[in-house]
Amino acid sequence: xxxxxxxxxxxxxxxxxxxxxxxxxxLTLIAAGRTVLLADSATGPPKxxxxxxxxxxxxxxxxxxxxxxxxxxxxxxxxxHSAWGSTALHTVDFIRDPYGHGWHLDRxxxxxxxxxxxxxxxxxxxxxxxVRRPERHHDGTWRLTLRTARAAPRTVTCHWIVDATGRRAAxxxxxxxxxxxxxxxxxxxxxxxxxxxxxxGHSLVESAPDGWWYTTLLPSRRRLVAYFTDPDxxxxxxxxxxxxxxxxxxxxxxxxxxxxxxxxxxAPAHSAHLDRVHGDGWVASGDAAVAFDPLSSQGIxxxxxxxxxxxxxxxxxxxxxxxxxxDYTADIATARAAYQHAHRTAHARETRWPDRPFWxxxxxxxxxxxxxxxxxxxxxxxxxxxxxxx
Length: 390
What we know:
The protein contains 10 helices and 21 strands. Strand 14 and strand 15 form a beta hairpin.
């Protein structure tokens, strides 16, 4: 369904955020017959070097997203090399995956393809537009201001808002929800020079005394190199020396040029979740609802899943189905529990540096934090019982 004509001033649902979670919610609601405005603010740190796992084919098919969203402008991802727990390199290949290979994404291109699919399906898509000043009225509707640098602000009303604004969860927090931040993991990343003819189809992960490294070839044939650690354990001036101290990442990066490197960019990579993922007239999806450590390689898949789930829950709720939003909450809790188990298991496998802060923080016994500040924990004593919190 494609609707022509000027934008509406009232919608069933406004989706704030035009990334995978927001697009999945918009596509799901449009397919259910709802009127939808998808507002993409185009703010936040640039997205680079993200991978999509093979099973995402099923989700994109369910969302009726054309194959060209994956076949145009992206590189196949055939698996992952990892040096974790030892210096030996272990490989997981997708060769036996029933859904085929994954993808190294040109993330801006992928997001634009999803928004184009939402527009073609019938959503009003407002590019470079932020949702501001949400006001809940007694009649059960929202009044929202849409702000853009390219036009005068306009006001719309809607019955529901989907918050897909990322880790800041702008709508949910404004409505009284609280972000529960579980760690302070930060990504420091650089994009190295292109290497013509490069065809590496695997990502590489390598643990280090104060964090872990990730590198992958981008569709531009440039190479992304990222170091994940806690802010107090790293200064940007250390980036090149720490990179060259790695065994496998340095070997992969050198052909792209590491002689003179500028300061790395910085982006949040911490685990976080909301204390509640829905409230009076709103529901959160994607990183706004639950954000995972990039080590999980599940960020975009989780965004698509939670976006689809949020769209279904809102549609069912508007139809009068009891418990739809509570079922969505339970699904988020189940996904988060599975992530926490995998996160504990992965970090427990790295035992070479038990007294280094990065690793003992992820094994220390303490209550999960609820703010953005670091938790100050003593290093474990010899022989102490340790429990991973994340």
